[in-house]
Each structure stands twice: as C-alpha cells, then as structure tokens.
Design a protein that fits this description.
This protein has one helix spanning 54-63, and strands at 4-10, 15-18, 24-37, 43-53, 69-82, 88-101. It is mostly beta strands. The radius of gyration is 19 Å and the shape is extended.
C-alpha cells in the first residue's frame, strides 16, 4: 500500500504545464511542520514536492498561492533523472489524488479574477436543516 496524507502550506506559487500529450499538470511544494521542536526550541518543517494532474491540476493552479494551507492525500512516486552535469539523481514526489483547500474562504480568490466557479467548499448546513436520526437506525 502506498498512501500519504499531509497538511501543510505552499512554499511558493504553483507552476502549471502540459505534457507533450496535452495533459495538464501542476507542481508545488508544501512545508509540513513537525509536532516537536529541535534542541534549540525551533519548529522544524519537512518539504514535499507535490504534483497534480488534469482537472485537479487546473483547480490548484487557479486557487492556490504561496502560503495556502492544503490537505493532500495521494501516493509517493520515485523519479530518476539526469541533471545538467549528467549525474543521475533520484527524487520523490507526492502524486495528489485529493487536495483539500484549507485556507479560509475570504482568502480564496481565483488567480484570474473570475468567478468562484472552480473550487469552493460547501457551506455548512444549519441546524434547522438537519434531520434527527434514531439510534436504532445506526449500523453500529
């Protein structure tokens, strides 16, 4: 099983591109704070390179920006390549299956200035809209 779940903040604006076959993708890096401090009392962060594909890539490119808080669910993928000097390198990317935008709604404006047509979290339901549930109907 290859599954990773992360919550962190973008370290820079997302970068979008298209493959030679015409598939959209977006890359960004998130910083995830560790739950403890180091010996100097400083909070340490780990950095993860994230890649999204297709419609998810379009939404991320449109609504995310440096500092955005996101929840990522996906898998880890190893990538090998040669650098400019011909040295073989290995990197690990998080391939996102889901990206949850955690930045508060007033701060989530699309980068193109258009309507909120891409992603907008659902408004919570009011208590008056909720239906009572009989505990006998619960499966557990």
């Amino acid at each position: 099983m290859n599954k990773i779940i992360l919550i962190g903040n973008l370290t820079r604006d997302p970068e979008s591109s298209t493959t030679q076959g015409g598939v959209n993708f977006t890359r960004f890096t998130i910083a995830v704070n560790r739950t403890f401090t180091n010996s100097a009392g400083e909070r340490v962060a780990d950095y993860f390179d994230v890649i999204c594909w297709r419609q998810l890539a379009e939404r991320c490119a449109r609504f995310l920006f440096k500092g955005s808080k996101v929840g990522i669910c996906g898998s880890v993928q190893r990538r090998q390549y040669e650098d400019r000097d011909g040295i073989k390198r290995t990197s690990f990317d998080v391939v996102a299956d889901e990206v949850v935008f955690l930045t508060p709604k007033p701060n989530m404006q699309p980068r193109d200035g258009g309507s909120q047509g891409g992603y907008m979290p659902e408004e919570p339901h009011s208590v008056s809209e909720m239906q009572p549930v009989d505990s006998d109907d619960l499966p557990f």
